[in-house]
Design goal:
The protein is of the alpha/beta class and about 300 residues long. It contains nine helices and 17 strands. The strands form four sheets. The protein has an eight-stranded mixed β-sheet with strand order 3-9-2-1-12-16-17-15, sandwiched between helices. A hairpin with a 7-residue loop joins strand 13 and strand 14. It is globular and about 55 Å long.
Length: about 300
């Protein structure tokens, strides 16, 4: 297959923060993705799910509060639900956009599990906030269950879960087969469903996986030609948010590591994207990474915007 193979990572802006906003947002997202297909890319798409999985967790928790005979849904189930309905919206919007352009290309969503290490340090220091604000009494109940909570003075408490590093993508061969068949594939949504392997069985973990971390791994595992990270800014910057802000049009892995050492990339926003880029390029030195915003991706492909990272 001569098409350029790319893994595209979609951030929150590509999906919106509510079910209604998501339906509208994916129409715009589908146009950008269809532009890539028209540029002769074979796409494997992954996406964030922070607002979505948090919304599902809230809903399932409240259901349990109202109907006590219901069993609360664990995080792995909430993650699976979010993968399903986000994938559903993306694949339908993209399929419609492609057909409107005269392109007949199958679009599939794969419910994807990702193994994590039960001894990952992240399980001892959870950082990802999910769900609703709780009273002190509800927070104490969560603590008794072995869960972690974080206090927000004047607002209440919220649950926090771990964000361990991904080890293996369980369905990677299915993803690879569909990509090789020239389908558009949506996989590893929200970082994938975190699971722990125990005696050949997969047990859901109370955790979430960083979307950027899985994007880098997915691109490396597929030996994709490019990793395209679509975020909320048109490119990567030095001294971001200061009067000295300066756009970076291109850099190497070595230069990226130097800037990381100088704390040029903010933790939780740009830093995970740079780390994903490095992980991918160290596994596939011939590849390249494009970081840009959803509405400037066409310009980036023409070299007019965005940041390109190479080995």
């Amino acid at each position: 297959m001569s098409r350029k193979r790319a893994v595209v990572s979609l951030g929150h802006d590509a999906l919106g923060y509510t079910t209604g906003a998501q339906r509208d947002a994916v129409q715009v997202t589908a146009r950008a993705l269809a532009d890539l297909v028209e540029e002769d890319y074979q796409l494997t798409i992954t996406h964030s799910n922070g607002p979505q999985v948090s919304m599902i967790h809230k809903a399932m928790t409240e259901l349990r509060r109202v109907y006590t005979d219901y069993t609360p849904a664990p995080m792995c189930v909430c993650s699976a639900m979010s993968q399903g309905y986000v994938g559903y919206d993306i694949q339908n919007a993209l399929r419609s956009e492609l057909l409107g352009r005269g392109i007949s290309r199958p679009v599939s969503t794969i419910l994807t599990q990702v193994t994590v290490d039960p001894y990952d340090e992240a399980f001892y220091e959870p950082t990802k906030v999910i769900g609703r604000f709780m009273s002190k009494e509800d927070a104490e109940t969560e603590i008794k269950k072995g869960n972690y909570v974080k206090e927000y003075p004047g607002k209440g408490y919220r649950r926090v879960v771990a964000a361990p590093q991904p080890i293996d993508i369980v369905e990677i061969e299915a993803i690879r087969a569909l990509a090789a068949a020239d389908q558009v594939v949506i996989a590893c949504g929200g970082g994938g469903i975190p699971v722990i392997e125990q005696n050949h069985a997969l047990q859901g973990a109370s955790a979430v996986i960083e979307k950027d971390a899985i994007a880098g791994k997915l691109a490396g595992d597929l030996q994709a030609d490019e990793l395209i990270i679509l975020t909320s800014v048109p490119c990567v910057y030095r001294h971001f948010g200061t009067p000295e802000q300066e756009a970076i049009s291109a850099m190497t892995v070595a230069q990226a590591k130097e800037l990381m050492a100088l704390n040029q990339f903010e933790a939780g926003t740009m830093l995970p994207k740079i780390e994903a880029a490095i992980a991918y390029l160290e596994k596939n030195p011939a590849g390249r990474v494009l970081i840009t915003s959803l509405d400037t991706v066409a310009e980036t492909l023409k070299g007019k915007n965005g940041t390109i990272i190479t080995h």
